[in-house]
Amino acid sequence: MKKVAFHNLGCKVNAYEMELMQQNFRENGFDIVPFGERADIYIINTCTVTNIADRKSRQMLHKAKSLNKDAIVVAAGCYVETDRERALKDESIDIIVGNKDKKDILNIIWNYIREREDSGKEGECPYSVYETVSSLTDHTRAYIKVQDGCDQYCSYCIIPFSRGHVISRNEEETLKEIRELAEDGCREFVITGIHLSSYGLDMPYNTVAKDGSYHNEALTVLIEKAALIPGVRRIRLGSLEPRIITCEFLARMRALDCFCPHFHLSLQSGSNEVLKRMNRRYDVEEYEQKTELIRKYFDHPAITTDIIVGFPGETEEEFKETRDYLNRIDFYEAHIFAYSRRKGTVADGMKDQLTRNQKSERSAFLLKDSAIRKKRFMEYYMGRKETILVEETVEIDGRPYLVGYNKEYVKCGFCKEGDTGSSGSFMEGTVKGFINDDMLLLV
Ligand code: SF4
């Protein structure tokens, strides 16, 4: 049996796709071993979001070759899409697999082996390929990837170059898959994509609401149909852009019992000047209106976001605007990323790049504020009844807890000594306090 080792870099979509590849190898009789062990095939699912990600991708490819010089080293994903020329020259790489070809990876490897060994093996690849690059399940939830690519061209991002234009997955196929996963016992579904708000833009759907404003009917209908599938108890959405938040969208989501009021609205900066330099397609006023609208339709929704701190030219004043804005919007969570240069992007060529120290100092301020807001958001639940979907048992300070998330994606735990739930089950309890900064205690 051939041994194969995987290493993943980068975003969640990459992680999902790697899981799918692993599943595919497993189903075809391969033995998956940890990266670091000697294997016959190494697959590195690369990332190119920053120059550092490029470097790490190369390091892992070289490491793979050093672990077994006779192994087949496969470079898959974004790095090889954006710097194919360099990848082709890299002697540690045997096979290059672009994002769109990941589903055919076994076929590609099979052909490579045939050619390398010149073995005269005839006929079809004996391995079956997976048909979609879409979903994966962990213990309790399935991630359903419904869209790939992006046409937004934010000035700091390489994804439109590495993943290409928007492609939406066929609705029927998506629903079929959700149905099968629900029949298998999966209860929570996360609808995700590289730029989820663009889902359906390549479909013959009307994306204009009755009042003339933008409305994504394709995504709305997909969620509504998924919610009707027996066994689907929760639906969450991946990262969204503000434009998708409309009265019609929110009203229709609110009507679904299984919809989780957790909105990850990517902001990146609270300064209009910085947003313009980033080539983001909204301003802070529009963004704020959308958060107000969400709060009108849902009671205590979780609104989370991503922030890039220290973007080229970010002045003290612009940073302060962002800091004040985050506090004003009162996010449940803000993921703070220090700006990192990415070769091939417009932002990489911008003047006034900030120093590492400036970026870390500013990040530290935002992280501190974020922790305070998060605690406040979680305190709201004290004394309230909450239901979690149990994901795992975790030991904290020597005691076992059944841990899961509520609908707003707040982590909660039951002390296992008194409870007998198991992974994949729903449990209800009353919030009695904090287990730690990240987790509420249910009894
Ligand atoms: S929206 Fe912007 S940041 Fe997000 S994938 Fe597209 S170009 Fe990149």
Determine the number of helices (DSSP H or I, runs of at least 4 residues): 13
- CATH topology grouping of the largest domain: Transcription Regulator spoIIAA
Q: Round the mean pLDDT to the nearest integer and report it.
A: 89
Count of spatially separate domains: 4
In short:
The chain has 443 residues and is α/β, with parallel strands linked by helices. The protein contains 13 helices and 18 strands.
List keywords for this structure.
5-stranded parallel beta sheet, Rossmann fold, binds iron/sulfur cluster, 4 domains, alpha/beta, 443 residues, Transcription Regulator spoIIAA
Walk me through what this model shows.
- The protein is of the alpha/beta class.
- The protein has helices at residues 12-27, 51-67, 78-82, 84-89, 105-117, 159-163, 171-183, 217-227, 247-254, 272-278, 284-297, 316-329, 356-379; strands at residues 3-8, 31-33, 41-46, 72-77, 95-97, 135-137, 141-148, 167-168, 188-193, 234-237, 262-264, 302-309, 333-338, 385-396, 399-405, 411-415, 426-436, 439-442.
- Residues 130-137 have low confidence and may be disordered.
- 35% of the residues lie in helices and 23% in strands.
- Strands 2-1-3-4-5 form a five-stranded parallel beta sheet, sandwiched between helices. Strands 6, 7, 8, 9 and 10 form a five-stranded mixed beta sheet that branches. Strands 14-15-16-18-17 form a five-stranded mixed β-barrel.
- It folds into four domains: 3-117, 3-Layer(aba) Sandwich (Rossmann fold); 134-260, Transcription Regulator spoIIAA; 274-380, Transcription Regulator spoIIAA (2-Layer Sandwich), CATH 3.30.750; 385-442, OB fold (Dihydrolipoamide Acetyltransferase, E2P).
- It binds iron/sulfur cluster.
- The site of iron/sulfur cluster has 9 residues, from helix 6.
